[in-house]
Amino acid sequence: MAVTATTPVTRPPAATSRTGPAAVTAALGLLVAVLAIVDITQGTAAVGAPETWKALTGRADPADASVVVASRLPRMVAGLLVGAALGMAGAALQAVSRNVLASPDTLAVNAGSYLALGLVAATGVSLPLLASSGVAFAGGLVAAAVVLGLSGLGAGTVRLVLAGSALTLGLTAVTEGLLLLFPRQTEGLYQWNQGSIAQNGFDGVLQMAPVGVLGLAGLLLLARRVDALALGDDAARGLGVPVRATRVTTVVLAALLSTAAVTLAGPIGFVGLCAPALVRPLARRFRALAKTRTGIPVAGLAGAALVLGSDVLLRAAVPADVAVAVPTGVVTSLVGAVFLIVMATRVRDSAGAAAADRLRIRSRAAFLTTTVVLAAVLVGVTIAAVLLGDAELLLGDVMNWAQGRAGRTVTFVLDTRVPRVLAALLAGAALALAGTLVQSVTRNPLAEPGVLGVSGGAALGAVLLVTTVPLAGSWSVAGAAFAGAAVSSLVVFGLAARGGFQQNRLVLVGFGVATGTAALISLLIVLTDPFNATKALTWLSGSTYGRTLPDVAPLAVVLALGAAVGVTRRTELDLMSLDEDTPRLLGIGLSRGRFGFLVLSVLLSATAVAAAGTIGFVGLVAPHAARALVGRQHVRVVPVAVLLGAVLVCTADLVGRTVIAPAQLGAGLMTAVIGTPYFVHLLVRSRR
User: Which of 159, 423, 518, 592 has a beta carbon 3.0–4.6 Å from 151's, enabling a disulfide?
Assistant: First the structure.
């Protein structure tokens, strides 16, 4: 290998380096120009290429000219500006962090901007475009600073994705809570969050273009310093480069570019991740493209090609009246999800498991005390959840209802409230058990159904049925959720198994699948009837609203089965959580046992999603807390985790429907708000 590396075969790129970058740039520019021309000929109006040409030359009918000048041209220019801004921002972030997965999406810039604009909208204040851009910039910059602080610059791809996805989930949950609480003030914000380059005139483009130019100019001025950072911090300091100031300034400029794109078109997903990655192979061939001064503009061209190409492809593949309703960001997110999954199979990173959790041993007295206390807390929370709500009841009312002697009002209240409480309890227990099984057999302390995309697949299957067959029953929804979870888990666990369930590959593939399912869910919600869309949004927030006893019956059956398997096969779980060799030495079929436990975890997650919607972080928090309380033996971890999960979700549901009554927030939103700080704590602790 060393000999081949020094042979002249590898040197032609250096010989063509003067003309190669120019040819690459010219080819990308030509591609962007062709896509721009095609883009302005597409639309719902019967204005084709001949009419468009006449409109551009001033010889068209006034109606045709109005369509081209007021709608299509601004859309095309917005696509150019948004794609270029996001491509350059992603290239700058990857260069300064030395992390190939850094982008406005993985750094939660878009989620921070979304929350900041949601907070302003909830107050009823209407801001001009430039002021909105400032608000979005502040929110995105704060989010990026938090993610970079948690992950550490250059500390690893997995940590960056985990920190970014966790913060994105938490911030998005808060924003969706605002959407539900202030529907009039935040009207249209959900559609905006899907990202669309559609414009009404050039006003927005003209106001955001100077912001993009300012960001690009600043990055080009910092280009030499950013190139020096690639040599390492010590080498850069030796060259007189202020490392910290350079990084901070670059992140601020990248956030400024992202904000210009977000303000103009909403979040257009994963362009900032894909565009630099498309340029990276070219940079390995043509050394000049590896320099920041040339690489960032070329990444901008690649980003523009991605956005315009997505818009052209969408309008070519889908009827015009449907395509106009599909946000561009949904298409780019799907492309980005596939791209991230492919990258996950190649990126290698080191991430150690939480050894402290494996070695911790607790006494039997500690286990019994913990179990008794948790059982008492569970009983108390359950009683409170049954008695409290929009109508407060007494224990006597519940006793009369159980004996069939309650009045009409009390009967109606308890007939609707008790199934909700049961759904929350069982969903929390099922998700906690699923998380326990996944973390054990993959030996990954950060694995859980939500992070790994299994819950996203279940949600996609259920939403697909809810939006197409609104009268579908609980067993049908559970079946659709299981089908979606099965498909997503096949992708995640199938690709991860090829690398021996390495933490990096498992988490990154799961994040990619979760992103893809989220994009497809957004597409279904945007295209469906408004009534079904509201129903789906409420369900996705993890709401137990409207649940009946038949809705929770499948979950009860699966949970009983899962708990029985978890307890009876506790020894296998203990051995699998140690290493690969010990189970084989003791005659345990590792592959078959792992597959069985993973199938059971998928079944638990799917039925929990079908019964209570999407509820995140429970499968992460409950097993961790259980191991901290009672040690690592699964005969103790399983019951304690189940109790903790039930308490957590039931409490979240109780708080969500009582604190701001008569308004309500789904349990999924509450657990995301609770789970995000805990996830952040785990990242900080593992970094130490």
Answer: 159
